[in-house]
Amino acid sequence: MEIQEFSKELKEKSKSINIHLEDKQIEKFYNYMNLLLEWNEKMNLTAITEPKEVILKHFIDSATIIKYIENGMQIVDVGTGAGFPGIPLNIINSEASYTLVDSLNKRINFLNEVINSLQLNNINTIHSRIEEFGRDNKESFDIATSRAVASLNILLEYLL
């Protein structure tokens, strides 16, 4: 998908959730998608590989909670996988701080490549199982996010 078509699609979908994206943010989302699709050929990051579906099911879905994130907040994204929702949230609001936690180092390597390539700020990655992260890390967070990590009752325990 060329960037013009991508931009049109992303702007249209983001309007549906009352988000306005600047051209620089759209460019970051476009580059993120291309990195995701490129790395997905080497390792399984996502089953969703059609660009319009990436926009809707990864980027827009992740962005739906942006209204709860204020500048200066500390956000932890548990079991971030390919960076959802943490990286899209950071692209939209880099004034909050994001910690992306995942148990697979190869995904952390991908996330670090995305962070460096997109020159994202206030975002870091941690290679850890959530049980260990919660036990070993005494830092507190304003918001904890997660997608498809565990059943709700187990997930709530992890996030606490």
Helix content: 40-55%
Query: What are the low-pLDDT stretches, counting only 5+ consecutive residues below 50?
Result: none
The main sheet comes to: 4 strands, parallel
H/E element string? HHHEHEHEHEH
List the main descriptive attributes of the protein structure presented here.
160 residues; alpha/beta; 4-stranded parallel beta sheet
Overview of this protein structure:
By secondary structure, this protein is α/β, with parallel strands linked by helices. Helix content is 50%, strand content 12%. It has seven helices and four strands. It has helices spanning 3-15, 23-40, 51-63, 86-92, 105-118, 130-136, 152-159; strands spanning 74-78, 97-102, 123-127, 143-146. Strands 3-2-1-4 form a four-stranded parallel sheet, with helices on one face. Strand 1 (74-78), helix 4 (86-92) and strand 2 form a beta-alpha-beta unit. Helix 1 runs parallel beside helix 3. The longest helix has 18 residues, at 23-40. It is globular. The mean pLDDT is 92.
